[in-house]
Amino acid sequence: MTELTALPQWQHLQELASTIDQQHMRDWFAEDEDRAARMQVESCGLYLDFSKNRVTDEVMQTLFSLAEAQGLSDKRQKMFAGEAINTTENRAVLHTALRNVSDTPVLVDGKDVMPEVKATLQKMESFTEAVHSGAHTGYTGKPIKHVVSIGIGGSFLGPKIMTEALKPFRHSAVKVHFVANVDGCHIHDVLSELDHTETLIVMSSKSFTTQETLQNTQSAKAWFLAQGGAQEDVAKHFVAVSSNVTAAVSFGIAKDNIFPMWDWVGGRYSLWSAIGLPIALALGFANFKQLLEGAHDMDRHFATAPSERNLPVILAMLGVWYRNFFGAQSHVLLPYYHYLRGLPAYVQQLDMESNGKSVTQSGENVAYPTGPIIWGSEGTNGQHSFHQLIHQGQGIIPADFILPLNVPNQDDTHHAMLASNCFGQSQALMQGKTFEECFADLADKGLEEDERERLARHKTMPGNKPSNTILFDSLTPHTLGALIAMYEHKVFVQGVVWQLNSFDQWGVELGKVLGDRVLAGIHGDQDDADFDASTQQLIARFKHANAPE
Ligand SMILES: O=P(O)(O)OC[C@H]1O[C@](O)(CO)[C@@H](O)[C@@H]1O
């Protein structure tokens, strides 16, 4: 395959970028009254206005052509077809099969995986209904009122953030709590509020080897027993989701209480699998199903829409444009909806664990920037904090503004203000305010000319800062499914362009191994000489502070 940077499309984009760097979006809007109408797309309940980007039609066409030159159509087809595109782990990548609500079979190594997927969904549905109806009780016969979901990374962020985002859809029978960190404060705080006879623990770990999740589950079990539960009562209160059924059984989870998943589901793509059980318990299975259906709609859109109308492809290629041709180091997500406040953290794992890589599929060092830093928080809070840097700081930070047009349980006053802030911010980022405008504004302040000039320089807003605006009618499970799947496919497209394997995460392994060794060092089971001088010093301080009196 031709080196990415040697492709004619890449070279052409470089030329276009140097011209566009001299132009201002403000002028484009003034000169081209069709711009906004042309640069908008709507599908799966999501509306995208991408007109406030530093792109022309020619740039967009060249970006789409670059994606094709990198094999987008072929690789997308391979992903949906269950080919082993995760080449370092020799695995298929089939989160799309988990939400395949059609009757189409999906083959992995010649075997249709859909019967297993459907059987697991059925098991989730029956269990959720049994908990909600009170058919599944705790060991004293009391109904389950609290669910504690224990898991980390993809076994935590998806369930937690989807449950939070869909708060208006919550089922009244149970309240779901989440524990991820091995920091004991978290599990202690959650469990200390609960009655063990009414509590169900859902332990979620694809690998069943993750230190944090194993330890938190052990602590939860110790709590359950200390509160008066007996070993034979554990089965009524502990279930697990894992692809490692053998390890789950030897840990002590009853076989019937294990919800399976498969190695072709990546952790950060797993909320659609049984990892979504806490979502179903929190919202009811029908709402979980709607989430899957929304994602499936986005899958169909991604697979079939031409690039010009394809939401994930457009977003991905705009990201490539800024990352590779304008030096953008990060991308900010700005959900203007309190319940969607967790979205930046969700997309952060999705994007940064997928494309935070410097070696191509074939093992060569990349010669261009890859995955950006993803960050952000809910509007309007960010406006009174970090937006300053987006407006007047150096470089560009492309932004996604995300807003539901309708919200539940609110009067219109708040929502109109929220929307006006959202639209006002993207407008300010785009148009800015010139030195001359700022200077004129200071005319009647009674200032000396040089003071007016000095202040106007500080007040000048460069503008020309890019953003997308994503709107939807209201945040239903269906819309949320489509929104999350859109970001998943955006990450996929960027991985294709950058020639990365977006589905492994070797970068997290060394820290785990060394962390285990340090733990052995703390317990005195590992020789000090095995650590560098700094680490020895830190361990010594920790041991000293925790030494028995
Ligand atoms: O579900 P598991 O196997 O416990 O893994 C949890 C998380 O840990 C990671 O492997 C990274 O450490 C993530 O990719 C994953 O989502």
UniProtKB/TrEMBL annotation:
Species, as recorded: Alteromonas aquimaris
Domain of life the protein comes from: Bacteria
Gene: pgi
Gene Ontology MF annotations: glucose-6-phosphate isomerase activity
EC number(s) from the headed UniProt entry: 5.3.1.9
Enzyme class per UniProt: isomerase
The protein's name: Glucose-6-phosphate isomerase
Catalyzed reactions: alpha-D-glucose 6-phosphate = beta-D-fructose 6-phosphate
Alphabetical keyword list: Cytoplasm, Gluconeogenesis, Glycolysis, Isomerase
InterPro entries found in the cross-reference section: G6P_Isomerase, G6P_Isomerase_C, Phosphoglucose_isomerase_CS, SIS_dom_sf, SIS_PGI_1, SIS_PGI_2
UniProt pathway: Carbohydrate biosynthesis; gluconeogenesis; Carbohydrate degradation; glycolysis; D-glyceraldehyde 3-phosphate and glycerone phosphate from D-glucose: step 2/4
Main location: cytoplasm
Keyword RNA-binding carried by entry: no
PROSITE patterns on file: P_GLUCOSE_ISOMERASE_1, P_GLUCOSE_ISOMERASE_2, P_GLUCOSE_ISOMERASE_3
Localization of this protein: Cytoplasm
Keyword Cytoplasm: yes
Recorded family membership: Belongs to the GPI family.
Coiled coil: none
Pfam families (alphabetical): PGI
Protein role: Catalyzes the reversible isomerization of glucose-6-phosphate to fructose-6-phosphate.
Catalytic-site annotation from UniProt: 353 (proton donor), 384, 512
CDD domains documented for this protein: SIS_PGI_1, SIS_PGI_2
